Amino acid sequence: MTTLNHSGISHTVFRLVGIPGLEEQHMWISIPFFISYVTALLGNSLLIFIILTERSLHEPMYLFLCMLSGADIVLSTATVPQALAIFWFHAGEISLDCCITQLFFIHSTFISESGILLVMAFDRYIAICYPLRYTTILTNSLIGKIGVTIFLRSYGTIFPIIFLLKRLTFCKHNFIPHTYCEHIGLAKYACNDIRVNIWYGFSILMSTVVLDVMLIFVSYVLILCAIFGMSSQNARHKALNTCGSHICVIILFYGPGLFTTLTQRFGRHIPPHIHILLANVCILAPPMLNPIIYGIKTKKIQEQVVHMFTKQK
User: Fold this and answer.
1) pTM of the predicted model, to two decimals?
2) How far apart are the C-alpha atoms of 313 and 304, rounded to whole Å?
């Protein structure tokens, strides 16, 4: 559908193509998408249920993990069902408003996850450097305020993008070579000047995700200094082990995104479908693997999962 205005035609309906160049393989590609989505839903829902119902897990680390699992479910649900609809039913048609809604939830949830990973690094810093004051510093009240701040930051920074996109006239073609909508990916089909969109997107990236990465790095430098300053080898090993899960999740979250950014910047001869597949890995991998990593690396969660299933039997 299109509308007419003073600039000519403006598209109000777009078509998500999926993975361009691999249309014939969409049915096969849908299998890992479906498996990762089901795994993410079940794994993160199980984590949330265990943490909320087991009083011994009502500690700051696990409450932040509960927030991360909730964000993982939102991120997966905002993207994967749309991709599966394209792969299975060729249902790629999406209205402009739905497209903007989808990208709003994708970008805001991504920033939320980045913020949660930052406060989890802060949590590990307090636990290792100030163990005796851990529970008095990270009270339930403070954890609640931190959670609200994280989500207000993510939604507040992404909200202006709605108006930056709504002001544009989309008079170019309306085929989007992707499985989901994203800010600049949609804005580039406008005939208007999109420099404001580009610079605002860049400023958000620098003031949220890049800043979070820098602060996480500083936190872990301080944590490692404290760990290697311990006299007991047992204490060092235990402290490093408590950080293991979080470091794995950080690498999993930021690693694919960094690799995707580098390939887009320097990999000009890489086929478009590789870029799209890498972008989907950034969305699919963390929600699927986060609960598995914490389930394997965290003894308390292991025990509760085993207890829950043995109790049912």
Assistant:
1) 0.93
2) 14
